[in-house]
Amino acid sequence: MELLLIRHALPETEVRNDGPADPPLSVLGNLQAKATADFLADETINAIVTSTMRRAMETSRPLAERLGLRAQQLDGLKESDHQRSSYTPMEDMDDDHEVILDYLKDPLLMFSDGYDAFRCRVLETFDNIVASHCGQTVAVYCHSMVVSVYLQTLLGHDDPFALLCDYCGISRVSASTTGIRTVRSINETAHLRQLASSVPFN
Predict the structure, then answer these.
(1) Residue 141 is part of which domain span?
(2) Based on the structure, what is the number of domains in the chain?
(3) Which CATH number goes with the domain that contains 78?
(4) If you write DSSP's letter for every residue of the chain in order, what string do you get?
(5) pLDDT tens track for 62-79
(6) Is residue 21 part of a domain?
(7) Is residue 197 part of a domain?
(8) With a threshold of 0.70, does the pTM exceed it?
(9) Is residue 201 situated within a structural domain?
């Protein structure tokens, strides 16, 4: 079966103090989501799976509507920092931002549940998707570190920050129920070229 790993589109910056941040897509993010749906519409996609976070679900919506599919939501695809109280795109962070300060102190502090637990959760979730969709192509809408850690593990890298994807970047993995995984592409973004304001990372 084929996995299309799609990072969510650009969300709005959300500031709150009463719980985890879960912002909707920005205006540009909605354009990115539509461009991604237009690009994938002619591929044979049998199922759509998303993280339970709003930015991933909203990114999946244009393709789901285009194909007449109902997206399945999986909590195991949540981002590594899902417990933070605010969401700030990486390009908007200054040197004093809490995420930057935590990263400089210890990069693995980005994993609010701990890196090992996050990695196990991501691998188990993708293994379950593979087992449930034998012979199919599944579009999986998730998050930067979810994609990065999954690909890092498949490729045998030690650094979970080595393969960060752009907003709506598409990575492809062929997966067999026997356990064989083949990375076919990483961070395809040609479908976003017409959006001159497209921005990378977090």
Answers:
(1) 2-192
(2) 1
(3) 3.40.50.1240
(4) -EEEEEE--PBPPEE-SSS-----B-HHHHHHHHHHHHHHTTS---EEEEESSHHHHHHHHHHHHHHT-PPEEEGGG--TTTT-SEE--GGG--TT-HHHHHHHH-GGGG-TT-HHHHHHHHHHHHHHHHHHSTT-EEEEEE-HHHHHHHHHHHHT-S-TTTTPPPTT-EEEEEE-TTS-EEEEEEEE-GGGTT-TT-----
(5) 999 999 999 999 999 999
(6) yes
(7) no
(8) yes
(9) no
